[in-house]
């Protein structure tokens, strides 16, 4: 029987101001904390993206390219620290709303190989969930068995954990209404794709461009590509606009929300 585990990914463009380095979107963070608390959903894992914390620093030091020279080492630490700062801000707000949020650094239990998750100790997460904690993870700068280090996106973590922990669904809260037939930020007449099944995947991927923002991990296309394996496994993915009040609450409760549903 499937567990009822839900993995909620909060995009960096939702919880930070992507155009201003190291700037959180406090109002949105508080609203989301309240919605998640009100939904009272367990078991739940929350993963957040880098936004204007991780991405500009990772880009500055070319962390996603792996180790090239010693000048990047400081940047690797700095990228991780920027993410920890954003994570602790979230945790503080989650606690304020009564959520038993528990920070777990991906770099402390995951190593990648050429940027893809290699070793991952899921016991920590399983035990935390058994205690009723809500693990809060994030896209991180991680050590890599081939290339020294890498940037591991929250999207990759969400998809891999969904398979390893046999999750029922992944909810991705982003800053647009879902997957559209063209970039909704550039094209106001972009149409929302409400349902995607595995057989539509290739065609739809051809329509979606990379995101315009400073993402070192691939924007919307990267997101869909990461989700594919989890969907193949049987996890349902729902991509929604987390900037719209009550969307995350409704999604957690299993109520109807405008967005893109991806199913096998
Ligand atoms: O925003 C990337 O995570 P994402 C995190 O989920 C860093 O792609 C460190 C840039």
Explain what this protein looks like in three dimensions.
- By secondary structure, the protein is of the alpha/beta class.
- Helices cover 39% and strands 22% of the residues.
- The protein is built from nine helices and twelve strands.
- It has helices at residues 12-15, 26-39, 51-60, 71-96, 123-130, 154-164, 201-207, 219-233, 247-253, and strands at residues 6-10, 44-48, 101-103, 110-113, 116-120, 134-138, 140-144, 148-152, 169-174, 195-197, 236-241, 259-263.
- The strands form three sheets. An eight-stranded mixed sheet has the order 3-6-2-1-9-11-12-10, sandwiched between helices. Strands 4-5 form a two-stranded antiparallel ribbon.
- β7 and β8 (148-152) form a beta hairpin.
- The longest helix is centred in the first third of the chain and has 26 residues, at 71-96.
- The two termini are 18 Å apart.
- The mean pLDDT is 93.
- Residues 12, 49-50, 54-55, 58, 79, 83, 139-141, 151, 153-155, 216-217 line the site of Isopentenyl phosphate.
Strand tally is 12
Structural class call reads alpha/beta
Which sequence of strands runs across the widest sheet? Answer: 3-6-2-1-9-11-12-10
Calculate the mean pLDDT score and round it.
93
**What is the CA-based Rg, rounded?**
17 Å
Order of helices and strands: EHHEHHEEEHEEEHEEHHEHE
- The helix count comes to 9
Net shape: globular
Strand content: 15-25%
- Which percent range fits the helix content? 25-40%
Contiguous uncertain segments of 5+ residues: none
Molecules bound to protein: Isopentenyl phosphate
| CA-CA gap between termini | 18 Å
Please describe the biggest sheet, giving its number of strands, its sense, and whether it closes into a barrel.
8 strands, mixed
């Amino acid at each position: 029987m499937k567990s009822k585990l839900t993995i909620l990914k909060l995009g960096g463009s939702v919880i930070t101001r992507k155009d201003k380095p190291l700037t959180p979107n406090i109002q949105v963070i508080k609203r989301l904390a309240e919605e998640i608390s009100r939904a009272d959903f367990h078991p739940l894992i929350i993963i957040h993206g880098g936004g204007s914390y991780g991405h500009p620093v990772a880009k500055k030091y070319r962390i996603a390219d792996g180790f090239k020279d010693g000048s990047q080492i400081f940047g690797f630490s700095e990228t991780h620290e920027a993410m920890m700062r954003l994570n602790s801000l979230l945790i503080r707000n989650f606690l304020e709303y009564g959520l038993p949020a528990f920070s777990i650094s991906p770099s402390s239990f995951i190593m990648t190989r050429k940027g893809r998750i290699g070793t991952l100790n899921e016991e920590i997460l399983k035990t935390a969930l058994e205690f009723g904690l809500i693990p809060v993870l994030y896209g991180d700068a991680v050590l890599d068995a081939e290339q020294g280090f890498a940037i591991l996106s929250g999207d990759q973590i969400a998809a891999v954990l969904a398979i390893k922990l046999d999750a029922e669904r992944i909810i991705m809260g982003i800053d647009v209404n879902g997957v559209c037939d063209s970039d909704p930020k550039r094209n106001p007449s972009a149409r929302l794709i409400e349902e995607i099944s595995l057989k539509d995947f290739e065609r739809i991927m051809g329509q979606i461009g990379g995101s315009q923002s400073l993402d070192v991990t691939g924007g919307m296309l990267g997101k869909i590509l990461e989700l594919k394996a989890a969907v193949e496994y049987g996890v349902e993915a729902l991509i929604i606009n987390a900037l719209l009040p009550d969307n995350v609450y409704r999604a957690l409760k299993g109520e109807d929300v405008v967005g893109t549903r991806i199913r096998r």
